[in-house]
Amino acid sequence: PRVRAGRSTPAKAPTIDVYVLGEVDKPGKREIEPGTTILQFFAEMGGFSKFAATKRVQLRTSRTGTEQIYVLDYNKIQNGAPFGTTIVMADGDVVVVPQRRLFE
Fold first, then answer.
1. C-alpha triplet 82, 84, 88: angle, nearest 5°
2. Which pLDDT belongs to residue 65?
3. Which of 1, 10, 68, 80 gets the most CB atoms within 10 Å of its CB?
4. Which residues contact 59 (CB under 8 A, 6 or more apart)?
5. 42 in Cβ contact with 93 (< 8 Å)
6. Between the CA of residue 18 and those of 2, 6, 34, what are the distances in Å?
7. Region for 40 from its dihedrals, namely left if φ exceeds 0, alpha if ψ lies in -120 to 50, beta otherwise
């Protein structure tokens, strides 16, 4: 195939793979831009199901070589807690949204 002079395909911006599972509207793998915060990722994942335990969202990450689990309260983040804008997603991170308990 010949390449026409003056035409080039735009370079694809680098992305990282992040996964989401559990009580969300769109579980699965997401390709997101580096620098995406956890709050921005909540928007990417399409929202929570009506059975989601939004006070116990888990961020599982292996940034330090060993898995660390952070428990996040989406309600507090939504109401302005500062850590929602400071946690930056990393390649391979997994967000787990558990199901609500009976009286939660």
1. 120
2. 85
3. 68
4. 38, 69, 70, 72, 87, 93, 94, 95
5. no
6. 37, 36, 10
7. alpha
Q: What is the value of pTM for the model shown?
A: 0.81
Is there a contact between 97 and 48 (Cβ–Cβ < 8 Å)?
Answer: yes
Q: Measure the N-to-C terminal CA separation of the chain; round to a whole number of Å.
A: 61
| Residue given tokens 């989406």 in the structure block | 74
Residue from 18, 103, 98 nearest 58 by CA: 98
Q: In whole angstroms, give the CA distance from residue 54 to residue 56.
A: 5
Alpha-carbon gap, residue 15 to 37, rounded angstroms: 14
Tens of pLDDT, residues 52-75: 999 999 999 988 889 999 999 998
42: amino acid identity, one letter: F
